[in-house]
User: What shape does this take?
Amino acid sequence: MTIINVTIAGGSGDLGGKLVQAFLADDSYQVNVLSRVNSDSKGLDQLRKQGVSVITVDYNQFDELVKALQGTDILICTLHYAIVDELQPVLFRAAKAAGVRRVVPSDFSSENEAFQRLVCPDPAATERNIIEAQLEYTRYFCGAFYCYLTTSHVGVNLENRSVTVVGKGDKPFSLAHQEDLARFVAASLKDPRSRNARLGFESCTITFNELIAAIEKHSGIKLNVTRLPSDPSLDFSGEDIMREDVINNLFSYAADLEIAGPHKITNGICPSVHLTTLDTYLADFFSKKA
Ligand SMILES: NC(=O)c1ccc[n+]([C@@H]2O[C@H](COP(=O)([O-])OP(=O)(O)OC[C@H]3O[C@@H](n4cnc5c(N)ncnc54)[C@H](OP(=O)(O)O)[C@@H]3O)[C@@H](O)[C@H]2O)c1
Assistant: This one.
């Protein structure tokens, strides 16, 4: 069996950590993680204990990056969103110089450009960086992660027992469980159809009204629903998405405008990947919380 050597830049992070576990569970892969000098990420020691090669790098030292990437077949970026624009182009150039075959950029979010512009000023940069580096790529797109549904990030505020819905709340949108997505990435990177492809993943499709009903059922909390009118002309660009009042409504608007997920779902290329239902996730979440 040919072993695929993957290096995950940001493998100590939230999604990166799930990807590391999915690759470790699949004996087709050898896993390395790139981590910043002086990183205070908590998961690093655990990764080392699991036998992951954690390579500490100064992302500003190109030669150091090239050396760290030598022997890597696929470079996967799961960097914190605020640092992607700065680090990803350098990483791709270093990957090219090190003989890396394929890159997976730090996407893992909506495929819609209007939505992407909210988190990065230049959504076309990733495409340009891939072309400039002349490397194979696989890009993964998905909707919001399950773990954000019970935070105020999608407009549901359990503490205040409130939720904001834009429009009728009846438009279907995609959601993804990070562990499912990670297994899909590990499975699909072995499939030839992932070469130079944009893949869309979802764990489930749901409407906002169904989401509210599911959260109420599992939390036992009756939510006060504020309904805002649908507004296709809405432009969040330039807004600080870390501001709670912005992010609270942002996802709800995106769901209503049908810009919150991938253009096309391609789960079908890896049908054996287990999908966690939202019901299972929420039942588990609220039982641990009780
Ligand atoms: N669909 C969704 O709902 C959703 C939600 C959140 C994120 N995402 C996507 O998932 C991907 C990963 O996001 P995440 O939330 O998992 O990331 P994260 O945990 O916030 O950060 C990942 C890693 O980036 C490194 N990092 C953090 N700050 C850095 C800095 N200033 N300079 C260099 N490295 C830094 C850290 O690794 P070291 O300390 O080891 O260097 C960290 O563990 C992104 O592409 C994001 O767009 C999607």
